[in-house]
From TrEMBL:
<dbReference type="GO" id="GO:0005829">
    <property type="term" value="C:cytosol"/>
</dbReference>
<keyword id="KW-1015">Disulfide bond</keyword>
<dbReference type="GO" id="GO:0015035">
    <property type="term" value="F:protein-disulfide reductase activity"/>
</dbReference>
<keyword id="KW-0676">Redox-active center</keyword>
<feature type="site" description="Contributes to redox potential value">
    <location>
        <position position="31"/>
    </location>
</feature>
<dbReference type="InterPro" id="IPR013766">
    <property type="entry name" value="Thioredoxin_domain"/>
</dbReference>
<protein>
    <recommendedName>
        <fullName>Thioredoxin</fullName>
    </recommendedName>
</protein>
<feature type="site" description="Contributes to redox potential value">
    <location>
        <position position="32"/>
    </location>
</feature>
<keyword id="KW-0249">Electron transport</keyword>
<feature type="domain" description="Thioredoxin">
    <location>
        <begin position="1"/>
        <end position="105"/>
    </location>
</feature>
<dbReference type="Pfam" id="PF00085">
    <property type="entry name" value="Thioredoxin"/>
</dbReference>
<feature type="disulfide bond" description="Redox-active">
    <location>
        <begin position="30"/>
        <end position="33"/>
    </location>
</feature>
<feature type="active site" description="Nucleophile">
    <location>
        <position position="30"/>
    </location>
</feature>
<comment type="similarity">
    <text>Belongs to the thioredoxin family.</text>
</comment>
<dbReference type="InterPro" id="IPR005746">
    <property type="entry name" value="Thioredoxin"/>
</dbReference>
<keyword id="KW-0813">Transport</keyword>
<dbReference type="InterPro" id="IPR036249">
    <property type="entry name" value="Thioredoxin-like_sf"/>
</dbReference>
Length: 124
């Protein structure tokens, strides 16, 4: 599956789907974003079971602000609706492939437990 551009309205429904969703935040004026785009596209084609989404931060400024995107490109990975990775900066193909493998290998029961513990500890 190739990459797909998503809007602010589509963001929540896209990331909350079961499975893995990567989101690339980019803009047209950003050189590193342009260099990262073909890498992202290529890895998306090798992983048809994963959703590779793209958000144009110029077109979707409200979403970028909500998510506190301060540098682009920023890559986020969600699995079953849970944010499991967020990092600014373009990744080389090998690093992106390692990230995909890492997210695939996560023990989601453990991740959900950590999220629940984190949320419980912040409810004073």
């Amino acid at each position: 599956m190739a990459t797909k551009n998503i809007t602010t309205e589509e963001f929540q429904s896209t990331i909350s789907e079961d499975g893995i969703t990567l989101v690339d935040f980019w803009a047209d004026w950003c050189g590193p974003c342009k260099q990262f785009a073909p890498i992202y596209e290529k890895v998306s084609e090798a992983n048809p079971d994963i959703t590779f989404a793209k958000v144009d931060t110029e077109a979707e400024q409200q979403l970028a602000a909500q998510l506190q995107i301060t540098a682009i490109p920023t890559l986020m990975a969600f699995r079953d609706g849970i944010l499991v990775f967020s990092q600014a900066g373009a990744l080389p193909a090998k690093s992106l492939e390692q990230l995909v493998d890492g997210v695939k290998g996560l023990d989601m029961d453990d991740v959900r437990k950590q999220v629940a513990e984190h949320e419980a500890s912040h409810q004073h």
